[in-house]
Amino acid sequence: MGEYIKPNSIIHGDSREILRQIAPDSVACSIWSPPYHVGKEYEAGMSYEDWLGLLQTVVSLHTPIIYIFWKPGITVVDRDRLTKEEWVNWGSRAVWSFPSVRANDDHEAKFPLELPRRIIRLLTTPEDVVLDCFVGSGTTAVAAILEGRQYIGIDIEEKYVEMSRKACRRTLESMNGEQQLQLF
Ligand SMILES: C[S@@+](CC[C@H](N)C(=O)[O-])C[C@H]1O[C@@H](n2cnc3c(N)ncnc32)[C@H](O)[C@@H]1O
Question: What homologous superfamily does CATH list for 9-182?
Answer without folding.
Answer: Vaccinia Virus protein VP39 (3.40.50.150)
